[in-house]
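## tool: complex_structure
## caller: assistant
## args:
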Amino acid sequence: MGAGAGKTRRMPRAVRERQMLDAAVRTFARLGYRAASMDGIAELAGVSKPLVYLYLHSKEDLFTAVIRREARALVDAVRAGVEPSLPADAQLWAGLRAFFTHTAEHPDGWAVLHHQARTHGEPFAAEVAAMREEIVAFVTALIGAAAREAHGTPDLPARDVAGLAQALVGAAESLAGWANETEGVSAKEAAATLMNFAWAGLGNLMRGERWAAGR
Amino acid sequence: MGAGAGKTRRMPRAVRERQMLDAAVRTFARLGYRAASMDGIAELAGVSKPLVYLYLHSKEDLFTAVIRREARALVDAVRAGVEPSLPADAQLWAGLRAFFTHTAEHPDGWAVLHHQARTHGEPFAAEVAAMREEIVAFVTALIGAAAREAHGTPDLPARDVAGLAQALVGAAESLAGWANETEGVSAKEAAATLMNFAWAGLGNLMRGERWAAGR
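## result:
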């Protein structure tokens, strides 16, 4: 310890683990869960394969650890981006920018959460479902608050709010994948597209204006 | 043939195959791909297991056949619901009603497409991705036509239209799962929630009105 140099230098376990998880998220995102190998992940992390097994136990446990870390980072980024004292539309705009900025800066993490974690069955899909429920609850609270904020109209029924939150989260997931796969679409553009789509629509709903069928 | 009765009556291959696929979609949706067995599917279909293998070859081929049939049925239902001579908002409303009616009437088919087919890797995920691209292309054309229809404003840039189509399709996917899992949400309610969300927002965009940041 201390004066050692080069490959034999000892690092704290937390640093080693982070290196392994960084290598794993990149590998799982690009090769997929099945094709990813513990050998390849160890090599990319610059550690020995036995050390990966010692710390993370198995490919399944490593994949679960990656999903948990990336899900937590995404939810934290969205929460940190939102200032609860602002009006609801400003909160939504900040939340969308934080979401699309995070998914653009962590494309491998988003690919693991949105694609890989859902395409390899349980228990991985359940980890992502839990994260999604947390985001839906957050958006539901935001839309509910916006409805209460709006002057002169009754509250939106709870079921409408729940449906709108599901629509908004589904739209954001879909756009994040599209933005990452489409050359030259910035996080801010993706956020602005969804904000225009969502708020101009939500804004009318808040004022009690609905689209009229059969006009 | 003809006068035969009971179990030994011969049926056309197409009828037998439909029975097998009906049993398979139900089994895959409820048990998942891995837990589903060819024995169980044959029993539910009222045919022998060798006949299932003779017609559909393997569990993998059967799953692929189920995905293709359910994807085709969903796309056809949406296309059939839309009358191209109507104004764009009426077309969208008809398309959404057709989509949510079909997913509500075929919850097992939707569960296979949205959940099972994406949670068991390739080649199944690619089948669903192809269906999704067809629906996105359809919605993109619809939004583009609406933008051209709108008077007095320039066309929306193609990239905005593409982003809006991605947002709308993602919102519909998310709401369909929610509607099927939530007691008492009808297809028409789900379609109305999304129509209000989408069109009041899209309608403003068509008139060149955008949500203004920093109000």
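## assistant note: Confidence is low (pLDDT under 50) at residues 1-6 of chain B. Chain B has nine helices and no strands. Handing back to user.
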